[in-house]
């Protein structure tokens, strides 16, 4: 599928290379990777789906193509089952090390990404839902009662949302390019008025952006201050400048600020997991900015801090209205421009 040609191994090579070049890799603790087990994968995915993915390393090219066609914007390479198990295992290793206090926080540089994959379906380059599984895993293993997931990837992580829509113990916050459903994954469920179901009502927060290219850095900071508190990050960097997917114009230093804000909210316990980011240059820079903040370095002054555009303010206003009955802090909140 030509849509998949941007999800390349070089994404990790340049990201890690930039960390080394900037002296950041030396300041980090490297955590050994493990393969995820079936039990890990089954925390979110169905047995049928896992069994089907397990067969992919033995399929012929024709069989792989046919298998791939049942899903959207994803490909299966003979190695992908192995890689997806390592991506998930790395994520869980990070979570374990943060939960046990061996490290304060961290970034899992992994691929394939995870936030689009669903219980019984691969989607959007994603095979297993690394972050959704990590949330279930910490709940089960550590008895954590309240997990916050922030998805700053430019795409809506529908797989994460579906996993927790009726679960009040996991708050899912996503902002994403939406354009009134014209942007992939083109789902009605990605809009602001989809807030979770049953007991989970109010614990899904979607901030859809309906205009591209005019989202300045201020929008990002503005959103966070008003709505979030947190733990796991679906760290996609496809909202950064130059990305072929996002077509937004956040400069990489904004990720230093976002990370900074989230570190304040979660008592410092923060696990970021790589999702998207397809412009190799801005991806590498964004990864470095994130790691700078995780290491406690002061964030640079944001370059492009003008007020949010009207379309963004409108989206935020809609989100607030939709959530007013669930969040007492929003009851009297007005809308202000920075
Ligand atoms: Zn993305």
Automatic annotation (TrEMBL):
**All copies of domain Histone deacetylase, residue ranges:** 7-293
Query: For this UniProt entry, which residues form the secretion signal?
Result: none
Record InterPro entries: HDACs, His_deacetylse_dom, His_deacetylse_dom_sf, Ureohydrolase_dom_sf
Which molecular function terms from Gene Ontology are attached? deacetylase activity
Gene Ontology BP annotations: epigenetic regulation of gene expression
* Gene3D superfamilies referenced in this protein's UniProt entry, alphabetically: Histone deacetylase domain
SUPFAM superfamilies named among the record's database cross-references: Arginase/deacetylase
**What protein name is recorded for this chain?**
Histone deacetylase domain-containing protein
From the broadest rank down, the organism's phylogenetic lineage runs:
Eukaryota, Metazoa, Chordata, Craniata, Vertebrata
